[in-house]
Write a structure and sequence with these properties.
The protein has about 575 residues and is an alpha/beta fold. About 40% of the residues lie in helices and about 20% in strands. A 5-stranded mixed sheet has the order 1-3-2-4-5, with helices on both faces. It has a 5-stranded mixed sheet with strand order 7-6-8-9-10, sandwiched between helices. Strands 11, 12, 13, 14 and 15 form a 5-stranded mixed sheet that branches. Strand 19 and strand 20 form a beta hairpin. Helix 1 crosses helix 4, helix 3 packs antiparallel against helix 4 and helix 17 packs antiparallel against helix 18. The structure holds 2-acetamido-2-deoxy-1-O-phosphono-alpha-D-glucopyranose and magnesium ion.
Length: about 575
């Protein structure tokens, strides 16, 4: 098959790059005001098509700006395994997005084809699955991406319509395993696994604690996830949830005072929730349904003030880790002698490596709980799901979550194959682990499958949301942002916990940390905004606040702060 370069240039010329913008494939793809994105998504379509040819498998592309305002949009690329675009290809994405015109773009594409040894022939055929969230700009941008895919010889775009980001990841993964890449199959997979886990509950009569409630109220962020939750609900007999903020008239706009990012950052009710929901189990997902947090409110009494309780990604991770650990423990023959299962010797398999992956933003109390209470190995990576996912895939069972609520549980294929051959052992824990691997999205963090997992674990334990919250108390923490002239001026090491440049900055942070009992602080340049983030933890809220303030001041002073100086 001949590449029609003239046709390619012609197609690209219809999507001129806006001048004066430097596009960057950040922590999670390109994201910007929607009016500036047509050229970028066309080019992302071209890249997804090239990646498909290079891997001889289907890839994916989703138009979304997640928790950002409705006027923004963005594009995320999905690799054949269902994970995010291989980091090695990100420079290609940047080079293409920033090519000045169709001629420069053609040169960049030729270079990528050569570097990646992409072959074109009659037999070469690729496929790119495309989806979008509910943003008004989505349809036009998806059409641009589709034209980008079609501009590459031998690659077909397939429009999957409106989906959550994790649904598209799941479908790319399914398609490449020759399974039906349909929404119906996604729901039936999740709901079937949920039912299996319900049936495998050890003691169905386990008494729920007083606050345990079957029902759950979910804030859908007025986005795509809300619509999909309603579809999922139809297949679940024993799990009731009420979805608020579905984008109905009068409920407000996408991500506008609603959604997981809002709830996690503000530690406050999203719109359409209030004090009348006291003691109810509530959850919130983000605008593309790849993040999940839980929360509940306790009203004030004569002796205590009201509290808004957030159960973030760290707490979800701890709950999942506890469940996985318990299931594995019952696979070990001499449980008594092996109460701690960082590695568990399972007859016929050997050491099962279980690990939990966190970033430096994980609350110190969660790390302590995982290590000391559960006896699990905890690894630290840089911020960004792509790093956590990669690390988690090194384990037989790897649990990863960012504090913001994005995460999942990954099972190594060899370990699952082993479990499948051991069905005859008759141990329910084998069937439970297999069902969890079917229910929880193996491609990427998925709020929908996350909700099912949280609910089933609470059901097993007979726990209320408050019981779950009480597994550990978060250390008081504070996050601040400082605007600097050039965020690249700060360089870090040790999974972003130490500054290497400017070196005086780390010395100043160490001095400040030394002043506070139990203090911890680090700074890093954001990968999604033009700022430096400051994180501080201490034994009281006022000392955590003071430590964060002091460190923010040093960032401003030593790393080229602009605008108002932190006090
Ligand atoms: C502290 C924080 O929440 N950082 C977020 C944020 O990245 P930054 O590089 O910190 O801007 O957005 C990322 C993409 O959604 C997410 O992966 C990450 O956890
Ligand atoms: Mg998201």
């Amino acid at each position: 098959m001949e590449w029609d370069w003239e046709g390619f240039r012609h197609a690209a010329a219809a999507f001129p790059k806006p001048s004066g913008i430097d596009f960057s494939y950040g922590t999670a793809g390109f994201r910007l005001d929607a009016s500036l994105l047509a050229s970028t998504v066309f080019r992302a379509g071209v890249l997804a098509a090239l990646r498909s040819l290079s891997m001889k498998s289907a890839t994916g592309l989703v138009i979304t700006a997640s928790h950002n305002p409705a006027s923004d949009n963005g594009v995320k690329l999905v690799d054949p395994g269902g994970g995010m675009l291989a980091m090695r290809w990100e420079p290609h994405a940047n080079a293409m997005a920033n090519a000045s015109d169709e001629h420069a773009l053609t040169e960049v594409v030729r270079k990528i084809i050569k570097e990646e040894s992409i072959a074109f022939g009659d037999e070469s055929c690729g496929k790119v699955l495309l989806a979008r969230d509910t943003r008004p700009s989505g349809q036009i941008l998806l059409a641009a991406a589709s034209q980008g895919v079609a501009a590459v010889a031998g690659v077909a775009p397939v429009d999957m319509g409106i989906l959550t980001t994790p649904q598209l990841h799941w479908m790319v993964c399914a398609l490449n395993k020759d399974q039906p890449a349909t929404e119906v199959n996604y729901y039936s997979h999740l709901s079937q696994a949920f039912r299996t886990l319900e049936q495998l509950r050890p003691d169905k009569s386990v008494r729920r604690s007083s606050l345990a409630s079957e029902s759950i109220i979910i804030d859908g962020a007025n986005g795509v996830g809300a619509l999909k939750l309603l579809q999922l609900q139809e297949l679940l007999e024993n799990l009731q949830f009420e979805v608020r903020n579905c984008g109905r008239a009068g409920e407000g706009g996408l991500n506008d005072g609603v959604g997981a990012d809002f709830v996690q950052k503000e530690k406050a009710f999203p719109r359409n929730f209030d004090k009348s929901d006291a003691l109810k189990k509530c959850a919130s997902i983000d605008g593309d349904a790849d993040r999940l947090v839980y929360f509940y409110f306790i009203s004030s009494t004569i002796s205590s003030p009201s509290t808004f309780n957030l159960l973030d990604g760290d707490k979800i991770s701890a709950l999942f880790a506890r469940f996985i650990r318990n299931q594995l423990q019952s696979l070990v023959e001499d449980v008594e002698e092996k109460p701690i299962i960082t590695t568990t010797l399972v007859a016929g398999y050997g050491d099962v490596r279980v690990g939990v992956v966190q970033t430096a933003y994980a609350n110190g109390a969660s790390t302590k709980y995982l290590q000391q209470e559960l006896g699990l190995e905890v690894s630290l990576t840089s911020t960004g799901v792509k790093y956590l996912h990669e690390k988690a895939s090194e384990y037989d069972i790897g649990i990863y979550f960012e504090a913001n609520g994005h995460g999942t549980i990954l099972f190594r294929e060899e370990f699952l194959a082993f479990l499948r051959t051991k069905h005859m052992w008759g141990k329910p824990s084998i069937h439970r682990l297999l069902a969890v691997s079917e229910m929880i999205n193996q491609a990427v963090g998925d709020a929908l499958s996350g909700i099912l997992m949280v609910e089933i674990v609470l059901m097993y334990l007979g726990w209320s949301i408050q019981d779950w919250n009480d597994i550990y108390a978060d250390l008081p923490s504070k996050q601040l942002k400082v605007k600097v002239a050039n965020r690249a001026a700060i360089r870090t090491t040790a999974s972003e916990t130490k500054v290497v440049y400017p070196s005086e900055l780390q010395k100043a942070i160490d001095t400040e940390v030394g002043k506070y009992d139990g203090g911890r602080s680090f700074v890093r340049p954001s990968g999604t905004e033009d700022i430096v983030r400051i994180y501080a933890e201490a034994t009281t809220q006022s000392t955590a606040d003071a430590l964060a303030q002091a460190v923010a001041f040093h960032v401003y002073r030593l790393a080229g702060g602009v605008g108002p100086q932190p006090s």
